[in-house]
Amino acid sequence: MPTIVPVILCGGSGTRLWPRSRATKPKPFLPLVGDSTLFEATAQRCPSGGGFAAPVVVTGAKHLGHVEAQLGDASGAAIIVEPEAKNTAAAIALAALRLPDDAVMLVCPSDHHIGNPGAFAEAAHAAAALAGDGWLVSFGIEAKSPETGFGYLKRGEPIGDVGFRTAQFVEKPDLERAKAFLTDGGYAWNGGIFAFQVKDFMRELDSHRPDIAQAVRQSVTEGEEQGQRFYPGGDAFAGIKGESVDYAVMENTSHAAMVPADMDWSDIGNWDALHEARDSDANGNSVSGEAELVDCHNVLVDTDGPKVSVIGLEDVIVVVDGNDVMITTRDGVQKVGKLKGAVDQ
Asked: How many CB atoms lie within 10 A of CB 183?
């Protein structure tokens, strides 16, 4: 079994979790579920004793302090400091070009919650086995509900007893189509977790997005090491047209595969998703901080100071962060990122 190199991607501002998540300290670096931050939990899921190498973290300069503070005792970890954000295809290529050609990369977003790390490790090793045979592998998260906020993977024919060909990448569907996917049973959520060998990923990037591949190579050639940090050259990187790895590579390769993963996964994409990921009482209420709830159902309260009292409400979210108070229905959580406070942060 090949050693797996976790490549942890840290970026974004997490505006849909405002006011708790802010540009200066976005959701990967917050303890949103349990005592560990999402970033810390991501690194902890890939221990050296479990067949994982030291992680490679790709982040921006504004998050560098948080990354280094929270890496803790991750001996041998490397940090690549992106000159600017250019989406996931370029970020993954930066990491790939700092690793041996035969290394198996496990690409992990740093802002997801996985409640069953054992199932994650099992899927990671299955994906690494496929990657060792030349496949570019996605984690197919078992679809539990007809979600319209995720892309989907359609399962193709089996590859041994480890995984499946990916027959189709499907964009975010409307509700009726999502319900049909769930009924069909052959579709999984695309969780944005991937495994592939460096040489296979770069071959596909060279084939389908040669402009990105060439610019990243030049940026790495012109880069500079400073201890555990690596600073790619900024001039070549600035010219990259940002594109996700899904669009640039995974939807174009003829070697796309998937491994099933039922691991209590959530992208913590908004306050409703966070409510579902946290423990709740018999009435579906979840409280962090000092609060009193009377005759409430499916209410989330998250306060960092003032006591919050809620009476007779259901399907409501209340967040207090310093001087900012945000109240929304569960149906309104997708609009949180449009608030002036979230946009102007």
From this structure: 10
Q: How buried is 233 (Cβ within 10 angstroms: 0-12 exposed, 13-18 middle, 19+ buried)?
A: middle
pTM of the model: 0.94
Q: Where are the beta strands (DSSP E) in the chain?
A: 4-9, 56-60, 78-82, 104-109, 113-114, 136-142, 152-159, 163-170, 187-197, 224-226, 229-231, 256-261, 265-266, 286-288, 291-294, 297-303, 308-311, 314-321, 324-329
In the chain, which residues have pLDDT < 50?
none
DSSP 239: T
CB count in 10 Å sphere of residue 330: 17
Q: Give the side-chain half-sphere CA count within 13 A for 126.
A: 21
Map residue 14 onto helix, strand or coil: coil
pLDDT in tens, 37-61: 999 999 999 998 899 999 999 999 9
Give the bridge partners for 301, in sequence order.
Answer: 287, 318
Give the integer Cα–Cα distance in Å for 263 and 243. 28
pLDDT value at residue 214: 98
Cα 306 from Cα 85, distance rounded (Å): 36
SS3 233: coil
Q: What is the DSSP letter of 103?
A: P
* Residue 342 burial (C-beta neighbours within 10 Å; 0-12, 13-18, 19+): buried
The label of the residue with tokens 């306050």 reads 271
Distance CA 52, CA 9 (A): 16
pLDDT of residue 68: 94
The pLDDT of residue 23? 84
Give the bridge partners for 319, in sequence order: 302, 326
Domain residue limits, the chain: 4-266, 271-344
CATH no. of 4-266: 3.90.550.10
